[in-house]
Write a structure and sequence with these properties.
- By secondary structure, the chain is an alpha/beta fold.
- The protein folds into 3 domains: 153 residues, no CATH class; 126 residues, 2-Layer Sandwich (Heat Shock Protein 90); 136 residues, Response regulator (Rossmann fold).
- 47% of the residues lie in helices and 15% in strands.
- The strands form 2 sheets. Strands 1-2-3-5-4 form a 5-stranded mixed β-sheet, covered by helices on one side.
- Helix 14 packs parallel to helix 15.
- The radius of gyration is 25 Å and the shape is flat.
- It starts with a helix and ends in a 5-residue tail after the last helix.
Amino acid sequence: MLLSHLRDALAHLHQKSRLQDHPLTALLVTEVPAASRGAALKRMLLDSMQQLRPDRADAYHSPAWRQYRTLFQHYVEGQRFEEIAEEQGISSRQARRDHLQAIDALVDVLWAKLNDTRELPTPRSPSPRSLSEPITSANDDASSIEGELHLVETSTPEEPTRIEEVLQGVLEVVDRLAEGLGTRIELALPETLPPVEANQTALRQALVGLVSYAVESSPAGRITLLAAPEARGASLRIVARGWAGPSPTTYEESARLAVIRRLLEIQGGGLEVQADEPGGVSFALSLPRRESLSVLVVDDNPDVLRLFQRYLGSASYHLVQATTAQAALKLARENPPWAITLDLMMPAHDGWELLQTLRREPGTRDIPVIVCSVLQERTLALTLGASFFLPKPVTRAALVAVLDQCRVAPRGGDRDPSAGSARTRGETGRPAG
């Protein structure tokens, strides 16, 4: 698969010996002398990466710039996604999403080069997703796999995922396989682990795949599952002793892990594989901590807070209510929330005055403000700086939709008004221009 070839080549971009006989080398640099093909492939990948660099006229924090910078920083400069996210002022999860989108764009560039090299006919419907299909087989079901992965990528877990529960379920699935091969599985967990931001079903599938792979490759061996809390989430290690199969660090075996790796990456996690001492292999997984995003609910009706809490259920939001504009401004200044919902009709100082104050002050001007009101003043609210407008009574679907848009939209003046569907923008978003 072109996509998996590319991902492996980028992961070993600075290892010319690995690139020398890489599958991409045979596809893209056949005209180069054999001794120089590894270096030639590296130059081609770097040149292709530069083709994704946006024009200087584009906003430096635009999605295209973020994607190019994430690709360059991760593979050329060797930065971790956490470091990239901190430097760009985005979440680690967003950095990984930018990375995946950049990889898709880079595949598109390489597909064009491959057409030039092999004089292949242009596909009828070329797209980054279709490029993940094997070149030699039109009947492969890679597109359906990509579709399922996309569903995982765009879904937001409604409940925190407990690693302990997932691991217990994994053991129940692979227990019979391990028993038949005489492989012993041990579970070593701390007393407490933080909940993580992950699709529970996808995480379970990834772990079942990894553990069963380790069991199959370690007959009569020992598999140890370890977990530990981390500052940004949690880490898991699957350590196999008595490994008798091919090394998972070879290209052929790493291709087997491609879907598992992507299942973790699109959820903000990662996977590293290491061959330990003879007969030992370890898989290190990282998972992001379940974020608790604070939302300041500004409304003089105490029932609104209970309503919004019921709407959001166990989603990752921490709701705090202020019943006056003065209290809301104090809370926003002292501990800026992730987002604010604002009622317009309140005693003393109304919501209009508070909205203008929030937008004037440097410490609060970038906080998304969702105006919720019975007053049909959408245009005025958006003109004065509201990020979204929701008419009362607010529905659960509308509230969840705008909060989801706040998750993916850049903060502050760089907020992308194109986030969401055209219908959603027409009803809730900032007007164009």
